[in-house]
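S.,

Sequence below, as promised.
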Amino acid sequence: MTAPTTFGLSTEARNLHWLLTNLVEEVPGLLSVAVVSSDGLLLLSSDPGRNAQAARETREKPAGPKGSAADLATIVSGIGSLAIGAAKLMDGGEVKQTMLAMEEGGLFIMSISDGSLLGVHSAPDSDMSVVAYHMALFVGRAGHVLTPEVRSELRQSIEATSTEASAEATSVRGAK
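The prediction came back faster than expected:
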């Protein structure tokens, strides 16, 4: 997880962390996962650092988007927004799921609630129906919990974790 500790978080926020951890651990082939608010801010994510470490150990190319969880959040937010715009233009109703199949993987996006989105980047050999099924389970379980208060709490948690990571990186560079 981007925020490895859930200490100090509400029960609802801890439950969302737990749901995301279970999604990542139960579904084979997931490279990275992000929950994004309606305004495009990252709320929760899997740990792309763990995926990169696993790739180094197996001497494969790094998994997930090139930069960070923020990159996946940006992609999910942008594609989600385009899908919503297309649905409006086509009088298609609410967008339930968007899928992008690529040569080297897949990107799945599902609406959670109030414009929040769940985005999953998967390996090329992942079973799309299994990924979609488990995403739907996550959305069903998380939708009623992702209230404005919990979204605000998760944003603050992500910001605090980013600040701590930046300070740690600065101190490591200074020690060299």
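The first strand starts at residue 30 and ends at 36.

Coffee later?
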